Fold this protein.
Amino acid sequence: MTTNSRFSVAVHIMAMLALNKKGPATSDILAKSVNTNPVVIRRIISMLKKAGLVDSKPGVKGINLKRGPLAISLLEIYEAVKVEKETLFCLHKKPSQECLVGANIHSSLHTPLNEAQIAVEKILSRYSLKEITRPITKKEMLRISPYISNV
């Protein structure tokens, strides 16, 4: 799974946790909403837990946010699920060194892709989880969601 999809799934999980007022959510419930396998959810939850964003206790079923949605930035979620040394833009492996372009494309792309990565992270730092969940709470469908209750 790439950082991009891990990130969007992680934000989905975090939004579900932020909006669920019933109590701790389970990986099965989260998996149904994301439409994926609970194992995928548990892996991402493990990353979020390691980053200090969610809490789950042994013997207690379910996951909760450790802080309120206003206190969690999208950058924190992104960093939690980013695999070390992984960047938003991946370079293709082993271009031909016999070709002028192939031999130089990685070094030519380094600066613009690095600047783009920094810009994306700066923008993500400006948004909180609350700003992501706010428009969701305005949707009529939320009131009839089988996955979230007591919102």
Q: What stands out?
A: The chain has a mean pLDDT of 87. The chain has six helices and two strands. The CA atoms of residues 20 and 27 lie 13 Å apart.
